[in-house]
Specification:
6 strands; 23% helix; single chain; globular
């Protein structure tokens, strides 16, 4: 599974494992939500509206996300569809843990 830890309402990535980097096709540690928004879409290719990205909802609303799909556009044009599960982490600063599973093959089979 891809693992990402984000911090603050701007969604600063403070940790990623190698699987998450593989999904994005680039390092994302140190990026913020606004940096990543152009690469992240709904599975049908449409853009998320402001405040709708799974990471935004977890960080700003302290909401849990279960099984939501997101399309990630990689620098070389390839696309990956990932299923996201995310939870807020305890503490005074907004933090979130996201896990991602690659569901690209399943989506293409549907």
């Amino acid at each position: 599974a891809g693992i990402v830890i984000l911090e603050g309402e701007d969604g600063l990535v403070t940790y990623t494992n190698s699987r998450a980097v593989e999904f994005y096709g680039r390092p994302i540690e140190g990026t913020r939500l606004d940096d990543r928004t152009p690469w992240q879409h709904r599975p049908n290719g449409s853009r998320f509206e402001a405040g709708e990205l799974p990471a935004e909802r977890v960080l700003r609303q302290r909401a849990r996300v279960r099984g939501e799909e997101m399309l990630i556009e990689q620098p070389d044009g390839r696309q990956r569809v990932v299923e996201i599960h995310a939870v807020p982490l305890p503490g005074e600063v907004a933090r979130a843990l996201l896990t991602m599973q690659d569901v690209t093959r399943r989506r293409h089979a549907e």
